[in-house]
Amino acid sequence: MKRTPAIAALAAIALAVVGCSSSGSTSSAGGGSSSSASGGTVDIYSSLPLQGASTAQTAPMVNGMKLALSQAGGKAGQWTVNYQSLDDSTAAAGKWDPGQTAANARKAATDPKAVYYMGEFNSGASEVSVPILNQAGLPQVSPANTYVGLTTSLPGSAAGEPQKYYPNGTRNYLRIVPIDSIQAASDLMAMKQAGCTKVAVANDKEAYGAGLATLLGLEKGFYGVNIVSNTGIDPTAPNFRSFASTVQGEGADCFFFAGIVSNGAVQLTKDVNSALPKAKIFGGDGVCTDSYTSATKGGVPASLYPLMECTVATQDLAAYPGGKDFLAAYKAKYGTANPDPYAIYGYEVMKLGLDTIAKLGAQGNSKAAVLKALFATTGRNSVLGTYGFDKNGDTTLKSYGLYKVGSDGEPVFVKTITPTKTVQA
Predict the structure, then answer these.
(1) Nearest-angstrom CA–CA distance, 121 and 46
(2) Does residue 392 surpass a pLDDT of 60?
(3) Where are the beta strands (DSSP E) in 180-295?
(4) How far from chain centre, in Å, is Cα 157?
């Protein structure tokens, strides 16, 4: 999602503005609330789009967070946890909204009991929230962001990144998913293996989408994939027939959409398929969910299922360490045996916070102590496998899962892809 002047300006204004309401829900141990606790309570927030197409991924993610908290008895060691789930989307936008994201960040930044913030889901949203939370020194861990510029100056980032997101000079942001230099390489390997000879790429112009598309172009030579074009589309357009006609003229035999479902993904894919009915269709984690892949849930027609492949950092949930136990616990609590892959990332991002706070003992209510402990994380045994964080706050995990679409329209795990080469600084 390429940053826009409007978002950049809003982020700057948000740093100076204090006080704004934010929607959300609260849960805590024993059904209590922070107002009834005394001294032994810490506040944890999540900020995710809970309206629009992304809810197919974020609702299971919040469920995963609540499951982890429930298993911990609503506590992190000696501390009672007051968890607030905030919505960074609006009904009008149908997706994440810059103003609402800034409001959520300010709410947490001005809360003296806040020690941990889980979000955002969209990389463009984190461009707004990270600087606000950074000034407050509040630890932020994203369960989904992949845009490289949030943490690095790797090719694919923009001028001034990542320094501009950290006005106090100290990093406060980490993420548990591998960055897009790894995802792009995984996608290129998948397209090469699928026999793509000419790939047309469209992106939604947001930080995630534009960044992923750029990295596909930067890394294509490593994997021998010919990308014939990369086009930024208008997500609000009623149709994309003109674009489809263009890629038809380019002789594309594969199409890749870099963006999120709510930014025109379904209509765009239908129009491209009409122009190129045999072209294989690929996408990143922004569309690897049933709101895009399933016809019965508002996604693409069922006739396209055999043509589709996509990537998500999550691999076979049942094959993860503790994955079967997680799935059993999730089913017991929510009645769903095969949740969206992001459910396990919600579970782990909450569990990481709870474990970090618990290990700090009496310092568990210190934002600075929690932040220091997060960056010192190495060899963490988790449901995602063993990982830690590098100096930039990026996970040491290096693989993505490749998914196809089943006859029911649901993404189905195929295999793990671990790239052999990515762009370097």
Answers:
(1) 10
(2) yes
(3) 199-203, 227-232, 254-258, 280-283
(4) 17
Instruction: Tell me, yes or no, whether 191 and 174 share the same domain.
Output: no
Question: Which residue range is the domain that position 410 belongs to?
Answer: 180-312+399-417
List, for residues 14-36, the tens digit of each pLDDT value: 444 333 334 455 554 433 333 33
127 contacts 207 by C-beta, under 8 angstroms: yes
Please indicate, yes or no, whether residues 125 and 144 belong to a single structural domain of this protein: yes
CA distances from 324 to 317, 327, 329, 344 (A): 7, 5, 9, 11
pTM: 0.87
Torsion of CA 249, 250, 255, 257, to 10 degrees: -90
- Encoded tokens for 157: 């980032």
Could you give the number of structural domains in the chain?
2
Residue 218 and residue 267 in one domain: yes
CATH number at residue 91: 3.40.50.2300
Q: Return the closest-CA partner of residue 306 out of 267, 268, 277, 280.
A: 280
Token digits of residue 34: 């922070």
Quick one: 184 and 168 in the same domain? Answer: no
Q: How large is the average pLDDT for residues 324-328? A: 95
In a domain, 394, yes or no: no
Residue with tokens 């009834």: 36
Evaluate whether residue 422 is within a structural domain: no
pLDDT at 403 over 60: yes
**Please, what is the angle between helix 98-109 and helix 5-16, to 10°?**
30
Give the tens place of pLDDT for each residue, 62-78.
999 999 999 999 999 99
At a CB cut-off of 8 Å and minimum separation 6, what does 270 contact? 300, 301, 304
